[in-house]
Write a structure and sequence with these properties.
heterodimer; A: alpha+beta; 2 domains; B: alpha/beta; six-stranded mixed beta sheet; 7 helices; 10 strands; about 30% helix; binds adenosine-5'-diphosphate; binds magnesium ion
Amino acid sequence: MTDTYSRRWRPAPFLPDTDNRDGSLMFVMATLCFLACLMALALVATNRAVQGWSDQLNSQATVIVRPRANETPDLAAARAAEALAGVPGVTEARALEREKAESLVEPWLGDITDLEDLPIPRLVTVDLDDRNPATSATLAAALKARGIDGIIDDHSIWTRDIARSAAVLRLVCAGVFILITTAAGAIIAFATRAGLLARREVVEVLHLTGAENIYIARLFQVRFARLAAWAGGGGALAAAAIGAALRLAGSGSDLTPTIPVIWSDILAVLPCPLVAALVAAMAARLTAERLISEIT
Amino acid sequence: MARVSDNLFAAEAVLRFDDVSLAYGRNDPTLRRVSFSLKPGSFHFITGASGAGKSSLLKLIYMAVRPTGGRIELFGHDIARISSRDLPLMRRRIGVVFQDFRLLDHMTAFDNAAVPLRITGLRPESYRNDVAELLSWVGMGERMHVLPPTLAGGEKQRLAIARAVVARPEIILADEPTGNLDADMSQRILKLFSQLNRLGTTVLIATHDQGMVERSGMPVLHLENGRLVSQVPGTRP
Ligand SMILES: Nc1ncnc2c1ncn2[C@@H]1O[C@H](COP(=O)(O)OP(=O)(O)O)[C@@H](O)[C@H]1O
Ligand SMILES: [Mg+2]
């Protein structure tokens, strides 16, 4: 009987398994991971949406044409469209009909279809070559060459605004992410300290029998890294579920949802278990090493 | 790994105390200018009343406390100058039987005995037969799978000894190893140490059991008020 015991013997964990069933620590870690994953999701989705909007705005310009005294607005717009279409870096230039222009100003001016004579400026939309877009300066030069009076809006005000908002958002996300990570690290450091003091007899026996401090620290490192990986998995799953719900809710209508999540955005939660494990491992290792050299 | 290696035969002493003093905090010194040396393969008792400083002297050797004065040389090295890297390697050359055993209660007797081998990073397959053999040798063959809290006093003692010697240390320090044991069990434990000593291990046992010391006829270091008052030569060298 003893023979089989020793032949089958596998080393028991130095830190008892019962210590690992720390539900509250698991819950706190999983919650932090969940929040971090939501941040990541929001950031990825927003970044992608911002990129889309900017691309769209950058690939278009709008020209407001003011007709000269001796020509109709429609004619002026047509001439402008013709002039702009020939500029290198422009793929297409279209004069908007009066109705289109009216519908664009309707939100501000109301229904103005009866006011035939109101000099509504005509708009020319210019589609730019994505790879080599014409600058607003070249567009202006082309108009001037034909003697057309027009104001060019290359949407740079909008793209700059969007870029600024996106940058602020990224900064906020990064800040919150760092905060969450630090909080997770601090909680693990706290748990390591408590775990180590609770198992002081193990630490002392290992130390006095000649275990290296790193060997002892690694016990705690592995234990908390494992716990954090599980918590990270749980948090990531929950965040992925929220992402999926947003995606399903958003696809139903033509309206842009608040956060336009697409399926691939949800992949952003994948690194969570690994990152959580790394953060926990580092926090546990540093805390354990310092504490071990203090108490031994 | 930098092995702190020495040739025991070249070194004249395994252990040397030179005017070693120890005071805990601001208290009066527990040990005062203690000097002695142990030859490789020797067997000594440390005697003295309770509180005389026996445990403290052993703690100095296994480097759980640092002396407040003097110099301790272990395996030819001044222990004050051992780098923190080499410290664990030095400790592995010392086997300690603690007065309170210090067994890990959540692990079986077998696990406890295997600790010193396990922490060296060896694979379990490479040492589990040795551990089983050693446990049988100390009479724990039938109790390998038992958790320490269910072991009797004598069994705990023998398990603690097994753990102390399993990695074949060059010196064994035992603190009151027969403390709460009956005469019969004390005899058995003492015999164990003699056998290990005959295999070449240096043995140092702290005890206040004067009868056992006299029966063994081994040399004695006697402490009184923190001073080493005599280095009584034994009847056997
Ligand atoms: N950690 C400690 N802190 C303060 N005093 C201690 C400590 N350990 C031992 N002492 C004191 O040192 C003296 C010697 O103790 P000890 O070495 O345990 O003696 P012995 O083992 O001979 O009974 C005692 O007076 C004891 O109170
Ligand atoms: Mg004592």
